[in-house]
Amino acid sequence: MRAHLASIGVIGGSGFYEFLDDATEIAVQTPFGPPSDPVTIGTVAGRSVAFLPRHGRDHRFPPHKIPYQANLWALRSVGVRQVLAPSAVGSLSAGYGPGTLVIPDQIVDRTSGRPQTYYGDGGAVHVQFADPYCGSGRSVAVAAAREGGWAVVPDGTLVVIEGPRFSTRAESRWYAAQGWTIVGMTGHPEAVLARELALCYTPLCLVTDTDAGVDQGEGVTHEEVMRVFARNLNRLRGLVLSVIENLPGERDSCTCGSSLDGLKLPIELP
Description:
alpha/beta; Rossmann fold; 11-stranded mixed sheet; 25% helix; 23% strand
């Protein structure tokens, strides 16, 4: 077991490296293979933070191939207990255009075949997942976003699709008809794996496009998504800094840390 080197973790894109001071890379091995990249540990506002690029620094992992189990395990193994997860998403409503920030409170899984538990052998472990995100982290994120002048949506449902393709218009319209808010490709199984490790997990979802069922043009393209994300990167990075600065030092205002209480675990956690 490693020493506790960081208490807060950020899983995001490569543009987030620059927000860490005194950064040091650490190679972490896990029972689930290597994470997407070495973990980079540094300081933000006097707090120790671990950063892990979700897709790898060269973006070599498409959404359905990301080593999600290894990523969350690696962060916990260096001491992380609170995770921030910025990501790009599509909007299922014309009212939430590119540049909107959504802090969802619910998630729907439409993926297939992704390993989504640490407890596949040695007995079933059933974690409570009715409210998939950290209530404390979400509150801090919403307050920080409002303070920063974001057009923030303080709740909503993220539907996660398998990818790497984008949705058809029919799929997109169906998602919207269910009352879901945004669509992405990486939020699951990150959130459930975080809960299985008793971690706080807070999503920060930047709308980069309106999804195919909303858009009247040619549909979503990867180039469009990356262009809008890059245009908002500095602002999103500033939001992450603000959230880190304001996260509680002790996890006594949420139940994430007690999510495994009373459960018999077949493996030892780091």
